[in-house]
# Entry
Amino acid sequence: MTHSLKTLTAGIGCALLLALAAGGAGAQNLLSNPGFENGLTGWTQLGDMPVIDGGTGCVTPYEGSHYVWVAYKSSLGMSNAYSLLRQAVPFTAGHTATLTARAMHCSTFPLTGTAQGIGQIVTCDFQFLNAAGTQVNPISVTGNGYIDGTTPTNVWQALTYSAVAPTGTTQVRVRVMYSTINWAQSGGLVDGLSLQDEQAVGTTPAAWGQVKALYR
Ligand SMILES: [Ca+2]
# Structure
């Protein structure tokens, strides 16, 4: 192999690795039942009961046939002023976790107020946990993992929440949460969650196999 061909081949390998890192095998979703197609399977519920497919009538699912509705509605006997779904998966310290989700609120049953003030909010975010199950806080978070009363109604909003797992992390725990401060009836819909490990790609056998194949 000539020097120039070696250089070219190496360049292709790097390009492939970058492509894989950008979205190839790295697009694996770590969450189980991320779009609520199997009801609440895989999710742990706290507070008031989330409702699959809700009762607001304003929406079609973002993906698949189902979504989840998290709300405070007195007629449903809700009494905790919050509704929370959680799902924890193993995660590696130093890796970047990125959660994407779609959330919406309906004009027939809207959120009011702001996340920073008196109002209601629907949150899609995550926490890092250590081996003892204790929360360990990241240095910083990027993205915007919530909707509130200032968010346009009847349109799926794309949410992104991303952070580097701090030292000691063994799990990431994703949260879908509705909470209210003023106890006004309101709610929000969530669908199409995806949790990515941004560093998972380069070390997968499939990714390395494709790169090594260039040198055979
Ligand atoms: Ca769905």
About this structure: The chain has two domains: 1-27+200-216, 29-199.
